Amino acid sequence: MLRGLYDWTMSLAARKSAEWWLAFIAFVESSVFLIPADVLYVPMALAWPGRAYRYALVATVASVLGGIAGWTIGYYAFDAIAKPALEFYGKFEAFEQLRASADADLILLLLITSGLSHLPPIKVVTILSGALHVNIWLFIASAIVARGARFLFLAWLLNRYGVTIRHFIEERLGMLAALGCAALIGLYVVVRYVS
């Protein structure tokens, strides 16, 4: 199953419409979607390493625009859209605790960490930024820096080591998936029980 999913993603990455899909996923990831744009960006850059920087630019622009949409939801439609979604996922109380303790400096830090590493998820931070009425220009600048740095660094790595990394991934796909799952479980345990 994992091999089939990998092959499907690689075939999608080679399609003419791949850039549009990348832009769409990057946009919705920053405001409402659970899956990061990396799931399409990395295979696209592996399929075409010479286009890695172009894809990074597409992902960055779409991600920042999606972040603005998330900020707008938090600022103008928190009660109508964000609150019901947070309640549906069982995250409203945790969101409210974060909202009560957050200030502009913390939001800036969260924007950078979520932009670089998805921790916390970028959609939570974009909505929180709007709900706390963070200055939109500061928000946009932070999102450009964080998301741009992430995608450009990945572009550099994939452009420089793309063929080698692709062969490495294809030969060790099962092991890499197991390590990724173990890392996620470990991160969950640390966040849940240590903090």
What report would you give on this structure?
The protein is mainly α. It has one domain. Helix content is 83%, strand content 0%. The chain has ten helices and no strands. Helix 2 packs antiparallel against helix 3 (38-47) and helix 3 (38-47) crosses helix 9 (136-171). The model has no long low-confidence stretch (mean pLDDT 77).
Strand content: under 5%
Model regions low in confidence, pLDDT < 50 over at least 5 residues: none
Query: Given the structure, what is the number of helices?
Result: 10
Residue-averaged pLDDT: 77
Cα shape: globular
Helix content: over 70%
Q: Which structural class do you get from the secondary structure elements?
A: mainly alpha
**What integer value in Å does the Rg equal?**
17 Å
Tell me the series of helices and strands, N- to C-terminal: HHHHHHHHHH
The overall number of domains is 1
How many β-strands, per DSSP?
0
Q: End-to-end distance, in Å?
A: 35 Å
